[in-house]
Structure formats: structure tokens, C-alpha cells
């Protein structure tokens, strides 16, 4: 505060210097122009040598005064420059709901703001008011629909979170798909001081469906028109953003611009930077009416309270109805209608400086919006080409976008110190659970992983599947990390039914996966594969969490619990659907076992029948799974009996049994305490047995494990003694929990373990 007051005193001193120094100088010169009480003329004519009053001494004095005058004028010029800089930095105040600092930006009403700022700067207050109050909530509205838009929203939100210093309240107008994806994402992201509210976009369709729209955004591209009606009636102002926006500055700077609105200005918009509305792009090009170049609606500042009082709903509807009589449809969705309204009512708009919406479509004037990197505020990828757009500086813009695209979202879980945040039950429960752990426990990291909340992005790619109407449909469930991507195409070729996959990836790896999938004809031809990204956090591979995520998001009544390293036999999908009916899985608690085999060959001529598989088994090309390192895992399947079996047969649970099974979707989840390598499937099969599931082996089904390098987790298990000790401890605790939960019947698990 003291520093600010000193700055104010320097500012006033500079002002007084500029005002009084010229006055004193001219008084001095004026006094010096009197001789013997008479005025001496300074006109050129009277200064000539032939003047009777001209003397050598007066000439020297005159020259001396002229030199001094030039020096004073130079000093004044420097002082005026310093004063102008001080004015640019001086605080200005806007008496309203919130105080702010105006910047000297180009834009409608900026000259008035500057003058008001100078006046306020000369006030007696010593403190500079912040641009936006420290804990003031900034409201942002985004329309989002579908799988691709949900990915775009995440990048936009990352860029906002990276720069922000204020609490944020996102209002998401979303369809059912986007809501499911984003609700899970934000719930698991757990970013402090961020609130999310959803509004059903499907309920709003009737409000705008009467407007024909040729834009690729479809009906959702018109929904910004109805925000005054959709958003809460007590919400006074909101920033509206397209999903293809990237922020390069604190969004509070944009929020502060609301205080520059004057009179009836209710819309803050940047001028359109293409020639679209000039109507000269091609012959017979006829755009909607607009004021000059028109305005782009990728970034909008809406004064909702004033818009409601102006009857905005009626205003835009009447304009749209009138223009559609001749235009027949919109080409740029809501933007056409906004511009038509502004054309009739130009007083509604406050023109934002163009750096608040640098539009990177082809043939725009976006380069005029910035001279330096520091000038950039908001980048708008408003071309259908997106990152492939033509622009002289597109490489810079692309790298900025990719920075946020691949940025670790976990790093954005920053607290806003000094700002009270709403109580989050999930966060409070998590803190309570973690506080109960003993940090001195040698197995602390294992126990902590059980409670770690991993950010989860469901349906990372487009998913479209309707389960079969006969209620026999089966989804293959698996999990994987980046080093197993090569298995995806092969599995898709072997299994034509729906698949649910949980992928454990970093933000950067998720983008690598996206490029890999988009470049694969096999994967892009399949719309019944759900890819769910669980983002990396912590030092362990959360294998059972991944399985639970994949299990939870299936749409079929049954699921085949597999692993990504296995290729199912050709035709297994249809065979399992028939088996579901044959064994009455709908009305009985059964787990159907698919026998597992393995090969050590990277190139395998996959057997097309059971007979061919048995032949390869006899030749040593195939083996029963893990027969040489972990026989107990699949021994109860009874492969000897399976060789000749023609009908399903029942087997009993044994210690360490971990077959791959088909079960109803309501089966218990995997236990999250088991991470990395060891006991993750064993514990699940044990719980199925405790719940009295029957284990039935399918006689004509099989799957084959393909070879791969050892995982990092199995390497840790083999090399780290403490890892093995902790796994043993967790196993014992799990068995004790089973005994408490299932009673006397669960004692057999303890006995079986002791005997094994």
C-alpha cells in the first residue's frame, strides 16, 4: 500500500511539473522582454541589427534565453512522455458490482474508459483495485455434444485452468453422451474451486429445430441463442465459448471487460476476420446481413440480465423468421442470427479487441490481431480443417494447442489459496481415508493406491452400438497400457461383438493412441468398441481399477472377462451367445470358463477349430496357459477332460484358480487393493465362488495368449522383496475380509491357502 501511495505522489509531482515549469519559463521570458519598464518586441523585424535598441549584450542575452527555452521544452517533452506512461499504469475504478482495472485496449468504448480511468486515477484513494476480485467466480458456458466435442472441451478447459486464478463455474449445455463423459471426467478430476452444472441439450432442440442449418455443428450450433432462457435466472453475466478455443491468458482478463459495457451494450464480440459477410468470396455468394464484416460468435460476453429485460428471445426469433423467408437456412448457425440482430440493433454490441478471438480459418485477417506472442489472448480454430488450416504462424499456434492437448491434467489440481471452496463430499471422504493410513507402514504406497482417484475419460472415441434384442449379447472386457496397443487390431479381427477397453495412459500417450486409432482402418471401421482412458497417476498399474471401469460401461447383459494379450478363437462371440441360452445364464449364477492356451511364437497360424488346436498342442506349438510357471492358475479347468468333452462340465474352485470367464454384468467388481502383478484375478474368482457361482467349462471354446516382453510390474515383483511381502500381506487381509463378509463358508479359503 505504501508503495502504491508513493507511486501516486510521483504521478502528481510529474503532473505539477508539466503544468508549472512552462508557466514559470514564459513568465521569466516575458519579464526579460521589458527594458526600462517598456516592452521589448520579439518579432523578427525588430530583432534586426539595424534596430536602435539592438546591442551586442541584448543579442547574447536573447540567444541565451532561446537556448534555455529549448532545454526547458525538451525537459517538458520527456516529462509528458513519463506522464503518459504513468497514466497508462494509473488505477481506474468502475463503480458497480465489482471493481476492476481497465487496460488501454482498442475496442468500442475504450477512449471513454481511458478518460474515466485518468479521472479516477487522480482520486484520493491510495490503493489500486484488482481487475477482478480475488475470489470472484467466473461463469463460462459451453455447448457440447458428442464424443469428439467432449475431447475438445477437455483441451479448452485445460488452457483455462492453466492460467486461471479465480474460481470457475462451467455451465455445460450437453447431450446425453457428452454429459456422461464430462460428468465422470470432472468428478474424477477433482479440481478445486471448479463447479460444473449440466443442462440437457436434447430438451432445447425444440427451441431451435425450426431453423434450417447447413453448418457442420448441426442443431447444437444454434443453442447459444437460447442461453438467456436456459441458464439460471439469477445469473447476470457469462462468457460463452466454442469448444475449439484455446486460451493463452487468464480468463479473468476477459471477464473484466464486462465493466467496459456502456448504455445498452449487452453483447461482447470480436469482428469476423474473414470476408464471409462481405459477400465477395465467390460468384453469387449471398451471406446473411451483418454490420460491416460482421462478428464471430466463438467468444461471446453476454449480459444476461439486460438481455432478458430487452426480450432477447423475442428479438432474435423475429429476426430469424424474417431473414429465413429469403435466406431459407443459416450457413454459420447462431452466428448468422446474432449478426442479423446486430445489423438492426448495432447499439447492442461492444466490439472486443480482435486478440480475444484470433480466428484461424483460411483467408482471415488474423495476423493483424497480434504483433508479438504476448499479444495473444484467445486462439480460435474455427475452420473445419482445424490444425491443418493455412496461416503464416500456424506452427506456433499448433504447438501452443498441442501443449495443452498433451499437458498432464493432474498438475491442474491446484488450490486457490485464500478462496473458500464448496464442500466436496468425495474429496472429504478421500482425505479421511488417506488420513487413516499409517505413512510409516512399509506397504503404505500399496494401500494408498486403493484410494487414488484416477481421472477418467469415458468413450474417448466414437461409440455406437445397440445390444441384440434377444438379450444374449456379450461384451469382451479387457485393460491395457501403451505397450499393448498392437493387440487391438488382432482382437477386433477375432471378435466381432462389442468390446469395452480401459487404457492406462498419460495425457500425451492418449493423443498417441488417438492418432494410432485414427490411422487404422480396422479400428475406425468398428464403432462397437468403447475406449475408456484412465489417466496415469502413482507408481503402480491399477489393473483392477481398469477392469472395473471397463466392466461398468458395457451395454450388454453379459461380459467376457479377458486380458488384452489373448486372442479369442474365431467365432467365439456367436458361440458364447448360444451358450448363454443353452446354460440359462440369465436365471442361474454361472461363470462360463473359456480354456486358455499359449504360444511362444510371435507368428502363429491361428487354429480355426478345436481339432486343429489339439493337433498343435500335441506338436508343442501350443501349451496350456502358464503350465510351466503357474500350473495352479488353470489346473482346475481339467484340460485332459476338455480334450474329449462335447458338453459343458462343472469344475470346483481350488486355491489360486484364475480362469477367464463369461458372467452376467451384475457380478462383483475386482478388489482394488491388488495392483500391479499378483492375485488380482485370483481374488475375483474367489469372491465369485463365495457368492456361489458355478464354474462351467465350455467344451468348444478356447483363447490363446500371445507372447510379449515381461511387464514392468512383474519385473518389480520378481526383483523386489518388499513388493512380495506387501502382496502377501494384502492377500491375508483380503482373506480375512472374506471371512468377515461371507462367514463360515469362507473359512475354506484360509484352509486351502495353508494347504497349498
Structure report:
- This protein has 756 residues and is an alpha/beta fold.
- The protein is 40% helix and 15% strand.
- The chain is built from 25 helices and 25 strands.
- Strands 13-16-15-14-17-23-19-24-22 form a nine-stranded mixed sheet. It has a seven-stranded mixed sheet with strand order 5-4-3-6-9-8-10.
- The chain is elongated and about 105 Å long.
- It starts with a helix and ends with a helix.
- 37% of the residues are buried.
- It is a single-pass type II membrane protein.
- Pathway: Protein modification; protein glycosylation.
- It holds the Pfam family Glyco_transf_49.
Low-confidence stretches: 1-8, 10-14, 16-56, 83-106, 108-129
Give the helix tally: 25
**If you average the pLDDT, what whole number results?**
82
Gross morphology is elongated
Q: Going across the biggest sheet, name each strand in turn.
A: 13-16-15-14-17-23-19-24-22
Supply Rg. Answer: 37 Å
The main sheet comes to: 9 strands, mixed
Query: How large is the share of residues in beta strands?
Result: 5-15%
Residue share in helix: 25-40%
What is the terminal separation in angstroms? 75 Å
Total count of strands: 25
What is the SS-derived class?
Answer: alpha/beta
Amino acid at each position: 500500500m505504501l508503495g502504491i501511495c508513493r507511486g501516486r505522489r510521483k504521478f502528481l509531482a510529474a503532473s505539477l511539473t508539466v503544468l508549472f515549469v512552462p508557466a514559470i519559463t514564459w513568465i521569466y521570458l516575458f519579464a526579460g522582454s521589458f527594458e526600462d519598464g517598456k516592452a521589448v518586441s520579439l518579432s523578427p523585424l525588430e530583432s534586426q541589427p539595424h534596430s536602435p535598441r539592438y546591442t551586442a549584450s541584448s543579442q547574447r542575452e536573447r540567444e541565451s534565453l532561446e537556448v534555455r527555452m529549448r532545454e526547458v521544452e525538451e525537459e517538458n517533452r520527456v516529462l509528458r512522455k513519463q506522464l503518459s506512461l504513468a497514466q497508462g499504469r494509473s488505477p481506474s475504478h468502475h463503480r458497480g458490482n465489482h471493481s476492476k482495472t481497465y487496460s488501454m485496449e482498442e475496442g468500442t468504448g475504450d477512449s471513454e474508459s481511458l478518460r474515466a480511468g485518468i479521472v479516477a486515477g487522480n482520486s484520493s484513494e491510495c490503493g489500486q483495485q484488482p481487475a477482478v476480485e480475488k475470489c470472484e467466480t467466473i461463469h463460462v458456458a459451453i455447448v457440447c455434444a458428442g464424443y469428439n466435442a467432449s475431447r475438445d472441451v477437455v483441451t479448452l478447459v485445460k488452457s483455462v485452468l492453466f492460467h486461471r486464478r479465480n474460481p470457475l463455474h462451467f455451465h455445460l449445455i450437453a447431450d446425453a453422451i457428452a454429459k456422461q463423459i464430462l460428468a465422470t471426467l470432472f468428478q474424477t478430476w477433482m479440481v478445486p474451486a471448479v463447479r460444473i452444472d449440466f443442462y440437457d441439450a436434447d430438451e432445447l432442440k425444440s427451441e431451435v429445430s425450426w431453423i434450417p442449418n447447413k453448418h457442420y455443428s448441426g442443431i447444437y450450433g444454434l443453442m447459444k441463442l437460447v442461453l438467456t432462457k436456459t441458464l439460471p435466472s439469477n445469473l447476470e453475466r457469462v462468457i460463452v465459448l466454442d469448444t475449439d478455443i484455446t486460451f493463452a491468458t487468464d480468463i479473468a482478463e476477459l471477464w473484466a471487460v464486462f465493466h467496459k459495457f456502456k448504455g445498452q451494450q449487452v453483447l461482447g464480440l470480436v469482428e469476423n476476420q474473414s470476408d464471409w459477410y462481405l459477400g465477395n468470396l465467390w460468384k453469387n455468394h449471398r451471406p446473411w446481413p451483418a454490420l460491416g464484416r460482421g462478428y464471430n460468435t466463438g467468444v461471446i460476453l453476454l449480459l444476461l440480465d439486460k438481455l432478458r429485460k430487452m426480450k432477447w428471445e423475442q428479438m432474435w426469433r423475429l429476426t430469424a423468421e424474417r431473414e429465413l423467408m429469403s435466406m431459407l437456412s443459416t450457413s454459420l448457425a447462431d452466428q448468422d442470427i446474432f449478426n442479423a440482430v446486430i445489423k438492426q440493433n448495432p447499439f447492442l454490441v461492444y466490439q472486443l479487441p480482435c486478440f480475444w478471438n484470433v480466428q484461424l480459418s483460411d483467408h482471415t485477417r488474423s495476423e493483424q490481431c497480434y504483433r508479438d506472442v504476448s499479444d495473444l489472448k484467445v486462439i480460435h480454430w474455427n475452420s473445419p480443417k482445424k490444425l491443418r488450416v493455412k496461416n503464416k504462424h500456424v506452427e506456433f499456434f499448433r504447438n501452443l494447442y498441442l501443449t495443452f492437448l498433451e499437458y498432464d491434467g493432474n498438475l491442474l489440481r491446484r488450490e486457490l489459496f485464500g478462496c473458500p471452496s464448496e464442500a466436496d463430499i468425495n474429496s472429504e471422504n478421500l482425505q479421511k481415508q488417506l488420513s487413516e493410513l499409517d505413512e510409516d507402514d512399509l506397504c503404505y504406497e500399496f494401500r494408498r493406491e486403493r484410494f487414488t482417484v484416477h481421472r477418467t475419460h469415458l468413450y474417448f472415441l466414437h461409440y455406437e452400438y445397440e445390444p441384440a434384442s434377444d438379450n444374449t449379447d456379450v461384451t469382451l472386457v479387457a485393460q491395457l497400457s501403451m505397450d499393448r496397443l498392437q493387440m487391438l487390431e488382432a482382437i477386433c479381427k477375432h471378435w466381432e461383438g462389442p468390446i469395452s477397453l480401459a487404457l492406462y495412459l498419460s495425457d500425451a500417450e492418449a493423443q498417441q493412441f488417438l492418432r494410432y486409432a485414427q490411422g487404422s482402418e480396422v479400428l475406425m471401421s468398428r464403432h462397437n468398441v468403447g475406449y475408456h482412458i484412465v489417466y496415469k497417476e502413482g507408481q503402480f498399474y491399477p489393473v483392477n481399477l481398469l477392469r472395473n471401469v471397463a466392466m461398468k460401461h458395457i451395454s450388454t447383459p453379459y461380459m467376457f472377462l479377458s486380458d488384452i494379450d489373448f486372442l479369442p478363437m474365431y467365432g467365439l462371440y456367436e458361440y458364447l451367445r448360444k451358450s448363454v441360452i443353452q446354460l440359462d445364464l440369465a436365471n442361474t449364477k454361472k461363470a462360463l470358463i473359456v480354456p486358455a492356451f499359449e504360444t511362444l511364437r510371435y507368428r502363429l497360424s491361428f487354429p480355426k477349430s478345436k481339432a486343429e488346436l489339439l493337433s498343435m498342442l500335441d506338436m508343442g506349438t501350443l501349451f496350456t496357459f502358464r503350465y510351466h510357471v503357474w500350473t495352479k492358475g488353470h489346473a482346475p479347468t481339467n484340460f485332459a477332460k476338455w480334450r474329449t468333452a462335447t458338453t459343458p462340465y462343472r469344475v470346483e474352485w481350488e486355491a489360486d484358480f484364475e480362469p477367464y470367464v463369461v458372467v452376467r454384468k451384475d457380478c462383483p467388481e475386482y478388489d482394488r487393493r491388488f495392483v500391479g502383478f499378483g492375485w488380482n484375478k485370483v481374488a475375483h474368482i474367489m469372491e465369485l465362488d463365495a457368492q456361489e457361482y458355478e464354474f462351467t467349462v465350455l467344451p468348444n471354446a478356447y483363447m490363446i495368449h500371445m507372447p510379449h516382453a515381461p511387464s514392468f510390474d512383474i519385473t518389480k515383483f520378481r526383483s523386489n522383496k518388499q513388493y512380495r511381502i506387501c502382496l502377501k500381506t494384502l492377500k491375508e487381509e483380503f482373506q480375512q475380509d472374506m471371512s468377515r463378509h461371507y462367514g463360515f463358508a469362507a473359512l475354506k479359503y484360509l484352509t486351502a491357502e495353508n494347504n497349498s
